[in-house]
Design the sequence.
């Protein structure tokens, strides 16, 4: 499937019903997901995929559309219910499994070809991104991870493995205030590919 077609298909993925700020729940856009997954496909990284903090499934579902077998893990039961519905909608239920669990104590065996993730940036819980990076390197040979702009030096220093690719992108984050006012802010991010050490 070509990148453009993947992005269009992923527009059908429903997001969080009620995003929980303490879990830093914000979706990866269909456009960014298709870009990240297309790069993974070009690098022949997509085989067995684990999506850490899968939310409503954007990254694991996109990988499935490209032919991969995916497992998504998230702590949030409500997000996982939406993810299961999204899998049915996209007709990839046979290729995706969703598991409830904490990335800090993953209920999965290692041996995945690739981990994909848009982890918490650590704005609410300092160090949350580190837990995700450690878990990803433990269970997968290659990691694609989305971080705040300017995180390259930190991530390169933190991981055991080697960063081989990086590109810039944006994600939209909803800020909800009192009286149901809402502001959508575009946040610059960077996507990294890491070969686990
Ligand atoms: N991967 C999705 C969601 C990204 S938001 C997407 O790209 O659209 C980050 C997700 O990580 C949320 O769904 C949140 O519930 C989950 N999360 C945060 N901390 C977690 C933890 N310790 N273990 C598992 N999931 C966690």
Sequence:
């Amino acid at each position: 499937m070509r990148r453009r077609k993947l992005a269009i298909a992923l527009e059908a993925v429903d997001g969080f019903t009620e995003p929980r700020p303490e879990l830093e729940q914000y979706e990866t856009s269909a456009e960014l997901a298709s870009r990240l997954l297309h790069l993974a496909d070009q690098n022949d990284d997509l085989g067995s995929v684990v999506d850490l903090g899968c939310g409503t499934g954007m990254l694991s579902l996109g990988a499935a559309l490209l032919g991969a077998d995916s497992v998504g893990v998230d702590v949030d039961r409500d997000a996982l219910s939406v993810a299961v519905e999204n899998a049915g909608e996209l007709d990839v239920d046979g290729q995706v499994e969703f598991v409830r669990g904490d990335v800090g104590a993953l209920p999965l065996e290692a041996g995945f070809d690739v981990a994909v993730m848009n982890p918490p940036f650590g704005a609410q819980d300092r160090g949350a991104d580190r837990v995700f990076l450690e878990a990803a390197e433990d269970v997968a040979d290659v990691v694609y991870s989305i971080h705040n702009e300017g995180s390259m030096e930190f991530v390169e220093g933190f991981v055991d493995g080697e960063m081989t690719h990086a590109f810039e992108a944006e994600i939209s984050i909803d800020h909800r205030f009192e009286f149901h006012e809402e502001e959508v802010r575009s946040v610059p991010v960077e996507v990294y590919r890491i070969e686990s050490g």
Remarks:
- The chain has a mean pLDDT of 93.
- The pocket of S-adenosyl-L-homocysteine is lined by residues 23-28, 53-55, 58-59, 73-76, 79, 102-104, 118, 120 (CB under 6 Å).
